[in-house]
Write a structure and sequence with these properties.
Chain lengths: 615, 348
């Protein structure tokens, strides 16, 4: 007994010290990344000076940021760009006050140009409006800001580094969680994660020595190794590989060498690749399987564990021909302490199966909100915004007719504008819709009409494509509801998810409705119009807590139904019961939904019904 | 990628054969209708377009003209160059082929051109301030993330690209100016697709993918490193290959008009379009033009079935009715249909 207890105790200590070791390593890396970032800025390598920090707001992040800003020399400022910044502040635009008082166009510089030869900080990189983010990325890529709006045609050179904080949770956690735009993730060189570090590990460390831009050589074999590593981590874009090479050189420089060594690549890999990996490189069972083949299916990264025993690995890599991965897999293993590896594996396991595809919807988020359209003539009021330039353009040809500017009233005001000249800015309205399909896949439906319901949804998906809708798929059976497909336009995925939907089990109607409602609210926040299409027979027998209790289940379902009614989302309930029963009807009434019994005939007529009900 | 005054040499681009081929064909025959390149992030779409412009020789133009009219050819002159008294003061010189980038957030007034507000207010003159379409005349208009551009703007752009004229009737202005340019659009399909109506109006479309071959990836990185370390030296190293490509394009331009298309070829093209169910005649016309440009580029005197075959995917894969639930890419479906037609004909 005693021995056993002691063993458990020791084990606990082991876990504890391993955890501490890991945290220490992560913090070292985070500090090194900050130092390298500053050095890259200092040496004028702005294209490589990109740093994505996964971190919630908190003391660790503050300590880290203080360290970074303290290391920045006087002339290198970090310009904060809030996610709510307006496009004209970002890239520059017309200075309204000056334009009006001078009677000619006066420009003001945007933040991106002000940050020339310096750096920008995106405090919530995950929340940044897509249009704004694209402007930032385009400026970073091209080294210029191109403005073609408000009557301005201008090109200004700007080179800047980027620090972005990513406050989102881990992928696969909450559906609503926004992820950093893949374009940003792809372009930033350094990737660190402060979320796994506790305050006690965030010690003050000596900064790495400042080094000049000396020439460092890297061998073809090392580039080869980096390329293989990237593919192994599921990073198919070419940028990460180039960034890792640049980083390895910089690390060699810090160590005072002119030749890249194995260790440099290991550190570069930890700083650049590990935190954005979508899979772990693993030479497993099918030894013939070459890496390029894995890469062709980036949608379904195999998350095989890294073999623990090095003998195994050696044997297997010997069998593989053509790809020199013995070196880098060994180096990978030695570069990754077990604690870090476990963390990474846990993170990857939580990720949705199709990681790259799953972000699709997020990538396009918000890109339709507030997109400027051509301005129209109109009156001010109701918070409408005046398009000064269009208004002036409209007024300009009439200045002579409007009167002599030398008369007293207009002496101070050289331009005369009449009401009919006013132009109002227009923005694209919320017009995108997303259809959220909620399919009851419980036993009762499965026996009766699940196949028919699937057929109907499939037809509706086709209709959604024609209308450029986003679609999402929620199903409920057994004890709970699942989001089979977060809102996306990739209909092929919707079709696959639907085909794979099994039937049977209890009917947790309340959970199904609740999940759908949450999804709808998320969509609303993203600027889309959600509508719910519910296919069920309305007879619940599992309550909101996953317990089998028919009375409670029905009550819970009706409660959620009332919430849906209160939300005001457009809702349609298709009764898929064999006979029409009162439960479904009363559920529809509580939800404020249109009630439609699924016709016995064909799936085609359901789709017609939905269309008719929509317009 | 680094901003340097020297652009990456076209000949040094690794892989991306279909994109490079499509761009060269558009240089041989600018009337092909532009190139659409959709594909993954970081595959060098932008690099290729910039490189192409640097590849093309300087062209002669009326340098005093804001539309850079061609001093020799007379049909497409702007109002000034077209009028009879223009000859007196015009200056002629050699200029680079313009490549105009349509940036994100560009507004309609800057794209089409509008009343020059300052001149109007200060001098009381009605003067047209040319937009990007005027700047792009006789060159390239490049739109990155074309799939995110406002539909209305894309519509206008394609209209102008097809007619070659930008017609302004607004703000008291009434004028037209030549706007003949090759439209090159690129984008990432994951972030939204282009409407089918717009897709159809691009001449050629290519699907760009990250190279899967490790060796190719290594080569890309090595060349990029070499270029960034010494842009001038790198460009010099590739000068010979670049000028070989340039001469190929120039020669093909001269011979384009003489390339014959036999009735058999026209029949084959019709057969392919019918088999693929492409809507309208645009597909057939583009395929004929593309095959002719390819024949010229390869030095042939008439279009061969092989030319048709190699161009079919680029000219047609974006014109097929899309089945939203079929995940096969357009090019795969074209390939399937071609396989069938060419095998049935016994490879004729």
């Amino acid at each position: 007994m005693m021995v056993e207890a002691e063993a458990t105790h020791n084990q606990g200590l082991d876990v504890w010290s391993e955890r501490l070791e890991t945290e220490k390593l992560l913090w070292n890396d985070a500090c090194l990344a900050a130092d390298i970032f500053v050095q890259l800025l200092h040496n004028g390598e702005f294209e490589s000076a990109g740093l994505l920090v996964k971190a919630q707001a908190g003391p660790v992040r503050d300590i880290w940021l203080n360290r970074l800003t303290a290391a920045l020399p006087e002339k290198l400022k970090l310009h904060t760009i809030p996610h709510t910044i307006s496009p004209d502040r970002l890239v520059g635009g017309l200075d309204l006050t000056a334009t009006l008082s001078n009677g000619r166009k006066v420009f003001h510089q945007g933040l991106l140009v002000q940050a020339n030869q310096q750096a920008i900080l995106l405090p919530s990189g995950d929340l940044l409006h897509c249009e704004n983010l694209r402007q930032i990325l385009a400026a970073h890529d091209n080294g210029t800001v191109n403005i073609e709006r408000d009557g301005i045609s201008d090109q200004q050179a700007t080179r800047f580094g980027i620090v972005a904080f990513d406050e989102s949770g881990e992928p696969g956690g909450d559906v609503a969680d926004e992820q950093v735009h893949p374009g940003l993730r792809d372009r930033l060189t350094l990737h660190i994660n402060l979320n796994e570090i506790s305050i006690r590990s965030a010690q003050n460390l000596d900064p790495a020595p400042q080094v000049g831009p000396t020439e460092v050589s890297i061998t073809t074999q090392q580039i080869e190794e980096i390329c293989t590593l990237c593919v192994g981590f599921g990073l198919t874009s070419l940028r990460p590989a180039m960034q890792t090479a640049t980083l390895a050189k910089q690390i060699a420089r810090i160590d005072g060498r002119t030749v890249v060594k194995e260790l440099d690549i290991q550190i570069a890999m930890r700083l650049s690749l590990l935190n954005r990996a979508t899979q772990l490189p693993a030479p497993t069972e099918p030894a013939e399987e070459a890496l390029p083949e894995q890469e062709q299916q980036p949608d379904a990264p195999e998350q095989e564990p890294v073999p623990e025993q090095s003998e195994d690995r050696d044997e297997q890599s010997d069998q593989r021909s053509g790809i020199p991965d013995e070196i880098n897999l060994d180096s990978l293993a030695s570069a990754l302490p077990p604690g870090l590896l476990n963390l990474l594996r846990a993170r990857l396991n939580k990720a949705p199966k199709s990681i790259s595809a799953g972000r699709r919807g997020v990538g396009s988020r918000n890109n339709h909100r507030g997109r400027p359209l051509t301005s129209r003539r109109g009156d001010l009021g109701n918070g409408k915004r005046l398009d000064i330039l269009a208004t002036l353009r409209a007024a300009a040809p009439w200045q002579k007719l409007y009167g002599d500017p030398s008369t007293s009233a207009s002496a101070r005001n050289p331009i005369r504008v009449r009401r009919s000249d006013l132009h109002i800015r227009q923005f694209k309205q919320r017009s995108e819709t997303s259809s959220i399909f909620v399919v009851d896949a419980s036993g009762s439906t499965a026996i009766n009409r699940l196949a028919e319901a699937k057929g109907a949804v499939e037809l509706l998906l086709g209709a959604s494509y024609a209308r450029r809708d986003h679609v999402a798929l929620v199903s409920f059976r057994g004890r709970q509801a699942d989001v089979l497909l977060p809102p996306t336009r990739a209909l092929v995925r919707a079709k696959r998810a639907l085909a794979a939907l099994p039937g049977g089990g209890g009917t947790p109607l309340a959970s199904g409705l609740k999940t759908a409602l949450q999804l709808a609210e998320d969509e609303w926040r993203k600027g889309r119009f959600p509508s719910l299409i519910l296919l069920t027979d309305g007879s619940a027998n599992v309550d909101a807590n996953g317990q089998g209790n028919r009375t409670q289940a029905a009550e819970d379902a009706q409660n959620v139904a009332r919430l849906i009614d209160a939300s005001g989302f457009e809702t349609l309930l298709i009764d898929v019961g064999r006979q029409q029963r009162p439960q479904a009807k009363s559920l529809a009434a509580n939800m404020g939904a249109h009630y439609v019994p699924m016709p016995q005939a064909s799936a085609g007529s359901i789709s017609d019904m939905v269309k008719a009900h929509r317009r | 990628m680094a901003a340097t005054s020297v652009s990456y040499p076209f000949a040094a681009i690794v892989g991306q054969d279909s994109l490079k081929h499509a761009l060269m064909l558009s240089a041989v025959d600018p009337s092909l209708g532009g190139v659409l390149a959709m594909g993954d992030r970081g595959t060098g779409k932008t690099t290729a377009v910039r490189a192409l412009a640097a590849l093309l020789p300087k062209m002669s133009a009326v340098t005093s003209c804001q539309y850079r009219c061609n001093p020799i050819e007379t049909g497409n002159h702007c109002e000034v160059c077209g009028s009879s008294d223009a000859d007196a003061e015009r200056k002629v010189g050699k200029i680079d082929v313009p490549v105009v980038n349509l940036p994100l957030g560009a507004t309609e007034d800057r794209v089409l051109g509008a009343l020059d507000i300052e001149r109007a207010l200060i001098d009381g003159e009605k003067v047209f301030e040319p937009g990007l379409l005027a700047k792009a005349n006789r060159g390239y208009l490049y739109i990155d993330e074309v799939n995110l551009l406002e539909d209305h703007l894309v519509d206008v752009l394609l209209d102008v690209a097809a007619s070659g004229w930008n017609v302004i009737e607004r703000e008291g202005l009434s004028l037209r100016h030549p706007a003949r340019f090759v439209l090159v659009g690129s984008g990432n399909p994951e972030e939204g697709e282009l409407r089918p109506q717009l897709l159809d109006r691009f001449g050629l479309s290519v699907e760009v993918q990250t190279p899967n071959d490790i060796a190719q990836r290594i080569e890309i990185i090595k060349r990029r490193e070499a270029f960034e370390a010494d842009p001038q030296g790198f460009a010099k190293k590739w000068q010979r290959q670049n000028s070989r490509l340039r001469n190929q394009v120039l020669k093909a331009r001269d011979e384009l008009a003489t390339v014959q298309a036999s009735d058999d070829i026209l029949a084959l093209i019709a057969q392919i379009c019918i088999a693929l169910g492409t809507d309208g005649l645009r597909g057939e016309l583009t395929l004929i033009k593309a095959a002719r440009a390819e024949a010229a580029l390869k030095g042939g005197s008439e279009i061969s079935p092989q030319n048709v075959r190699s161009m079919a995917a680029m000219a047609l894969n974006h014109r097929m009715r899309r089945d939203p639930l079929d995940d096969a890419q357009g090019s795969v479906r074209v390939e399937r249909a071609l396989e069938k037609i060419f095998n049935d004909d016994g490879g004729s």
